[in-house]
User: Which sequence fits this backbone?
C-alpha cells in the first residue's frame, strides 16, 4: 500500500510502472531528478508526493492517469506555469508551494471539481486573483496564498472582492494577516487590509477625521481652561502671599513701635529715678 522511492536519483519513471500494483495507495517520489510530472498511470494511488524533484513541466493530462488521486504534493519544484484545464475528478489537495508560478486564470482549476485545499505559498504572484477562478470548485475550503509578491491597488474593486471572498466568514479560506503587499513601495510589508483600509471604508475615514477635529477642539478648549485655571490659582496665591507679607510687615511695624515706646518709657523712668546731683554733695563739715 505504501512505496517510498524518495532520495534516489530517478530521472524518469515509465508510464505503466504502477499499473501492476492495484493495492498501492501512497507513493513517495520526493528528492529525485524528475523534470516533468509525465503521464504516469495507476488505478489505486490516492497520495502522491513529488516534492523537490526539479519538476518544471506539468502536462495538461498529467493527472488523468490517476482516477483515485486525492492528494498530490508538487512543492519546492521549478514549475512556472500550470496548464489550463488540468483535469482530475477526485483531486482534493493540491500543493504547489515554493515554485515559480506567476499567474493563473479562469481555466486553470475549473476541471478540478473536488478541489478543497490549494496551497501556492512562496510563488511569484503579483496580480490579485479573481473569485471567478474558483467558480467551478464548490468544495474549496482553503487557499494558502502567503509569501507572494502581491501588488496592492486599492482602487481596483476586484481586490476588495477577492479579499472578502477569501477572508470573510462563513466561507473563510485564508487568514487576512497572511495577505501581504509587496508593492507599491509605500505599502510594502502591510497587509491588504492595512494598506486599503481607508479606501475600502471611506465613511469611517471621514468619521475618523471628524473625530480627530473634535478631539483637537476639545484638547484646545481643555488646554485653555487649564491655563485659565492655573492663572486664577496663581493670582489667588499671589494675593494670598501679598496679604501674608503685608500682615507680617504690619506685625513687624507694631513690634518696632512697641519697642520704641518701651524704650521711651524706660528712658523716662530712668530720668525720673535719677537722683539730684545736689543730693550727692555732702554738707560741709564742722572744720570746714
Assistant:
Amino acid at each position: 500500500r505504501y512505496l517510498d522511492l524518495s532520495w534516489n536519483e530517478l530521472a524518469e519513471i515509465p508510464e505503466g510502472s504502477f499499473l501492476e500494483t492495484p493495492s498501492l495507495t501512497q507513493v513517495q517520489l520526493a528528492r529525485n531528478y524528475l523534470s516533468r510530472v509525465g503521464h504516469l498511470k495507476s488505478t489505486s494511488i490516492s497520495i502522491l508526493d513529488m516534492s523537490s524533484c526539479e519538476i518544471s513541466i506539468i502536462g495538461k493530462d498529467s493527472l488523468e492517469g490517476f482516477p483515485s488521486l486525492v492528494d498530490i504534493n508538487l512543492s519546492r519544484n521549478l514549475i512556472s506555469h500550470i496548464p489550463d484545464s488540468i483535469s482530475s475528478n477526485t483531486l482534493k489537495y493540491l500543493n504547489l508551494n515554493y515554485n515559480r508560478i506567476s499567474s493563473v486564470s479562469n481555466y486553470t482549476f475549473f476541471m478540478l471539481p473536488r478541489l478543497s485545499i490549494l496551497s501556492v505559498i512562496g510563488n511569484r504572484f503579483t496580480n490579485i486573483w479573481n473569485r471567478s477562478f474558483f467558480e467551478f470548485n464548490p468544495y474549496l475550503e482553503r487557499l494558502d496564498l502567503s509569501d507572494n509578491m502581491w501588488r496592492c491597488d486599492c482602487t481596483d474593486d476586484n481586490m476588495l472582492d477577492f479579499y472578502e471572498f477569501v477572508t470573510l466568514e462563513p466561507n473563510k479560506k485564508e487568514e487576512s494577516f497572511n495577505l501581504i503587499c509587496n508593492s507599491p513601495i509605500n505599502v510594502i510589508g502591510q497587509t491588504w487590509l492595512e494598506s486599503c483600509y481607508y479606501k475600502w471604508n471611506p465613511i469611517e475615514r471621514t468619521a475618523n477625521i471628524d473625530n480627530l477635529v473634535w478631539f483637537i477642539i476639545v484638547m484646545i478648549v481643555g488646554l485653555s481652561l487649564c491655563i485659565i485655571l492655573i492663572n486664577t490659582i496663581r493670582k489667588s496665591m499671589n494675593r494670598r502671599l501679598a496679604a501674608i507679607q503685608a500682615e507680617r510687615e504690619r506685625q513687624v511695624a507694631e513690634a518696632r513701635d512697641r519697642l520704641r515706646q518701651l524704650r521711651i518709657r524706660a528712658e523716662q523712668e530712668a530720668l525720673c529715678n535719677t537722683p539730684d546731683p545736689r543730693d550727692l554733695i555732702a554738707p560741709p563739715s564742722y572744720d570746714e
Remarks:
- The chain has a mean pLDDT of 89.
- The beta strands are 2-4, 26-28, 47-49, 71-73, 93-95, 117-119, 142-144, 150-151, 181-183.
- The two ends are 167 Å apart (CA to CA).
